[in-house]
Amino acid sequence: MKRFSLFIILFWGLCLGVFSQEKEFEPPRLVVGIKVEGFQPEHIQQMWKYFTPGGFRKIVSESVVVKNVMHNIVSAGNSADMATIMTGSFPFYHGVSGDYFYSRLDNQTFSVLYDKDERGIGTKEKYSARRLLCSTFTDEIRMKNSLSQVHSIAINPEDAIMMGGHNATSVTWIDDVSNRWATSTYYERGLSRWADMMNANGRFNQISSERWTPSAGISTYLYPTVKGLRSVPFSYNPIEKNGTNQSQTILRNTPAANTLVAELARSVFENEKLGTDKHTDILMLQFNLKIPNQVGVGLNFAEQEDIYIRLDRDLQNLISLINSRVDENKVLYFFIGSSMDVHSPIELGKNQIPAGFFNADRALALLNTYLMAIYGNEKWISGYYGKNIFLNRKKIEEKKLDWNEFRERVTDFLIEFEGVQSAYSTTDILSFSGDKSDVRAKFRNSYHKNTSGDISISLMPGWIEVDNNGRVVGDANSPQQFFPFYIMQKNLSPTSIDMIYNSTDIAPTISSLMGVPFPNASVGNVIQLTK
């Protein structure tokens, strides 16, 4: 009897021990990250009835929605924004402060991706991730497990490279000069077999050359076309030359670009068998909702409606395929919108609200004229890009001018320009607190010794900077720049989070869900996804 009682006690003790143990952490088999340029949550509400059940509706309805994620940096293009998201850090650490940088040595402006030691594949551009100075969460998964795959597919090279990081299995983007999929010799495996196949068999050309016309009767659209017509359908040739840059086409701003990304993503997913083993794989994708010659960020034209509708179908097809091959409980989706101002300068101006476009060339010409009147007929400004002014240090030293006094004259002059909010020297910026409650913190966060200028400026709300080719430099200029972040996984209950988070919080959040270390310069915090 005693032996029987002892057996019962031991049996129940063992059972209690087993059941009291915490459930072993199971990382997702597949992580799918989607960035959509130009995405605005209010557009989804306006067009809800036009969407399929498995595209935007599914993402919005089944996700944890973090409504207010803030970029606490000076916006200077996709490279800086995406690098910040992927590393969980600021340009102060990761080194990418804009799409371009000025080289004092070469007296020339270069793409932040430019790397003379690499060659383009499918493109003339020589690109790499070498100027990204710390790890991304995609790097971390590869360092933890070399059998994990990371594939990055994008319309723009800036997004493709920042999303893929330093050690991706494949990084692919659209080259709209050669009209092909492209990559760099920086990546060991070169162009993925599936992208190369689309180039070789003509599929890329077939999709990119198909004329873009309405996917439904023009009378069914909410808004007129860009030309102001409600009865005449729009029509675009995606491979016609861009008006502002005759070497490029308008492909990036048409649904064809999104379809190309979606089709290659499906091909990579199926052929590389992503998510089908115990090694976590990552598929990073970038799409675009901006149309040719777009004015403003509101939903105002039939072309905008159509590009939303077509992308919605592409997303439904992709998500449906993935969920049919991989257990939904083992797939993690996250979706990022882009940081954009609510209204364009043109829209604000029409409503008598102060706004405008800041022409850097004109401002610098006037600044140099002013400096010549004081210090002599010399070229006092060496270069400029992305709200960074590079002074001619060599000439200033040669003339034995007081460096601090010179910079002070420059900043005092710049803040007199219409549209300029503030101007700070490097010394000023490095003295600022990194506290997010300090509005000047974004200057310090955006500074890096390798790429930042001697003077940095900010613009007033409603003002946007344009570069030498008329291209907008950074889409947002509000004091606080927000974008939405969606996370969709079966074991996460859909909810909406109103609390403000920083873009640096995304990388540690995804890292924690994957069970990998945070990127090595991460300063962010894990977002609380459950209430």
Descriptive labels:
531 residues; alpha/beta; Gyrase A, domain 2; four-stranded antiparallel sheet
Question: Brief overview, please?
Answer:
This protein is an alpha/beta fold and 531 residues long.
In one word, what is the shape?
globular
Helix content: 25-40%
- In the CATH scheme, the class of the domain at 73-126 and 344-478 would be Alpha Beta
Strand content: 15-25%
CATH level-two architecture of the domain at 73-126 and 344-478: 2-Layer Sandwich
The description of the largest β-sheet is: 10 strands, mixed
Strand order of the largest sheet: 5-8-7-6-9-1-10-17-2-18
Low-confidence stretches: 15-22
Give me the number of helical elements. 18
CATH topology title of the domain at 73-126 and 344-478: Gyrase A, domain 2
Gyration radius over CA: 25 Å
Strand segment tally? 18
For the terminal residues, how far apart are their CA atoms?
51 Å
Structural class: alpha/beta
- Overall residue-averaged pLDDT value: 91
